[in-house]
Please model this.
Amino acid sequence: MGEAELHQLITGCLNNNRKDQKVLYKAFYGFAMGICLRYAGNRYEAAEIMNQGFLKVYNNLHRYDEARPFMAWLGRIMMNTAIDYHRRNVKWAEYNDIDEALDISNSDYADSKLNYDELLGMIQRLPNSYRTVFNLYAIEGYTHDEIGDLLGISVGTSKSNLFKAREKLKQMILKTDQLPKPDMGNGYGPVSISAVSVGISFLINFIF
Model:
């Protein structure tokens, strides 16, 4: 979508034009859903988060700075909506600081042939607290201090949840042939796994 067309759509949405709101929704559906799927446990939950996110987009378009990339702004809203959703629904367990436990050996690594859909399916199988911290740290690039502030948890809890997420993902990857394939189809085109350009090889190396 060109800048002129995007600007026209945003102007229409600011004027509460339902047609333009629908076009904007369809244009960024795949991108937004890709973010929400990573934070959600299933597609229905992801859709709920995404729809809440788009409502925030429409309600806050007057705050959007057109000098900045629209997708980055929209992606941040989707991420924050997902975090808010899980803050309301997840009870965060407190763990001790485990700095020393984060050095995970890759001696058991299997030459996996995973694709994005398969890895996303595994991320969705993580418990909510582990999945959220994994996304924020491994994909969004937040530090444990920043994650603690975002989620209202301690740095030790963030580190512990990341460690446990990596361990669980490693186990699932090593058993990948036994896992069912996730259904990633949708009515608006392909879904992007991330708000940022993260390669699957990077994530596999991070996990192991």
